[in-house]
Write a structure and sequence with these properties.
Blueprint lengths: L1 E8 L2 E6 L3 E6 L13 E7 L2 E7 H4 L12 E7 L2 E7 L1 E8 L3 E4 L9 E7 L2 E6 L1 H5 L7 H4 L3
Parallel strand pairs: 5-7
Antiparallel strand pairs: 1-2, 1-8, 3-6, 4-5, 6-7, 9-10, 10-11
């Protein structure tokens, strides 16, 4: 049960618990970092804070494509630092009273999916920021300020 922010990658709907979301912003210019490997897209200046941008298409195995002006960024915290999750679109915010369909799924990407929930007759994978980003190595602060 809970409130989820649903987002889309291609035609697939995914979700994050709403309490993990600080805000949603339209895509802005992303500054690439030297030697950064996907899914780290680069960094943005988020009100003076240099913020890494993680491309969820890359992280979750979707086909690569150019960033579009309609793309969105979900701003959340990874530890005590902000991060931006790049997605195709924001689908909607949904409350579901449905119980979790399955916890600890053993399907593709088991290390990233926290559980599945049923939202509007659709089974949707739910991620947490910790599960999504726990295996990523983030650049040091000095690397993110590199010109």
């Amino acid at each position: 049960m809970g409130l989820y922010l649903c987002f889309q990658l291609d035609s697939q709907v995914h979700a994050l618990p709403i309490e993990e979301v600080e805000r949603i912003v339209r895509v802005v210019t992303i500054r690439p970092l030297p030697n950064a490997l996907p899914p780290l897209q680069g960094v943005i200046d988020l009100q003076g804070a240099i913020t890494p941008v993680i491309n969820l298409r890359d992280l979750l195995g979707h086909e690569k494509r150019e960033i579009e002006l309609s793309d969105m960024m979900i701003i959340c915290k990874h530890g005590d630092k902000p991060c931006a999750l790049l997605v195709d679109s924001i689908h909607q915010t949904e409350y579901t009273e449905e119980e979790v369909v399955e916890e600890n799924p053993s399907v593709a990407f088991p290390e990233t999916i926290a559980c599945f929930v049923k939202i509007q007759e659709r089974v949707v994978p739910v991620y947490t920021v910790e599960k999504l980003l726990n295996k990523l190595t983030f650049p040091q602060e000095s690397e993110m300020h590199h010109e």
